[in-house]
Write a structure and sequence with these properties.
Number of helices: 5
Strand content: 25-35%
Structural class: alpha+beta
Radius of gyration: 28 Å
Helix content: 25-40%
Order of helices and strands: HHEEEEEEEHEEHH
Distance between the termini: 119 Å
Shape: elongated
Number of strands: 9
């Protein structure tokens, strides 16, 4: 009978336990947000590029590089058909991370903004596929300025932000060699 009345001296307070659990959740969430640099609440916006020809070596998650700096990644690679030319295209959706480019005058250029990308395209921004490694053959999307290359838009969806593309160096060389009048050249020789 001594042990029947002498159990726990007092019961755990449910309010105290609830406050402790809530505090732990808030503390854990704060630590995660600090470690992620607050990027959870910053939207990653998408742009689309249409590449002609084969895109073997390009994979989801491949880097998107702007002027030599990684600014995003490849989100999705599809296969499409251009209705006008009846040629197969490779629509590549890229996702730009919340990087802000700082100009010398202190202005901030947000590469996620569709209007900003449209303005940069007007100044010659183009996308092309470049090789990451000769050993693996993996490709990445390179964004750079080529004002001498005209902007050819393929997509018809006005909601999607499109960055025009240009052929890779190998494709340009192959195209020139295909058009080269070899028979005439040999006859002249």
């Amino acid at each position: 009978s001594r042990y029947q009345g002498g159990g726990m001296s007092r019961q755990a307070n449910p309010t105290l336990i609830g406050a402790f659990v809530l505090g732990a959740i808030v503390l854990g969430t704060t630590i995660i947000l600090l470690l992620s640099g607050g990027q959870w609440f910053q939207a990653r916006r998408q742009h689309i590029l249409y590449f002609e020809g084969a895109a073997q070596g390009l994979q989801g998650g491949a880097p998107v590089v702007f002027l030599g700096v990684k600014v995003g990644r490849v989100k999705r690679i599809q296969l499409g058909l251009d209705a006008d030319s009846r040629r197969f295209m490779v629509p590549v959706t890229i996702e730009i991370e919340p990087n802000v480019v700082q100009s010398r005058r202190g202005e901030q250029v947000d590469l996620r903004d569709h209007k900003t990308i449209h303005q940069l395209v007007g100044r010659g921004l183009r996308g092309r596929l470049k090789m990451q490694s000769l050993l693996t053959g993996q490709l990445y999307v390179d964004l750079d300025f080529y004002p001498d290359k005209p902007a050819h838009y393929i997509g018809l969806d006005p909601k999607m932000s499109e960055i025009p593309t240009i052929p890779t160096t190998v494709e340009e060389l192959t195209s020139k060699l295909e058009r080269f009048p070899m028979d005439t050249f040999l006859a002249d020789l």
